[in-house]
Amino acid sequence: MSTAPEPRAPKPSLIFDDPLDQQSSDDTDRGWGERPGADSAADLKRFLDEKPPHHL
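User: That's the sequence. What structure does it adopt?
Assistant: Structure tokens below.
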């Protein structure tokens, strides 16, 4: 029976790359708030459902 410790996984190294050089999820062609396959009737329903009370 061996009492030698098990090898540990290597620690992740630090990365000193410029984070602005990488593409973020905001840099994609898909715009904010866009829903795939939405039609105008669904947009109207969402607008009426989410309308603030002072817009009644």
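The two ends are 78 Å apart (CA to CA).
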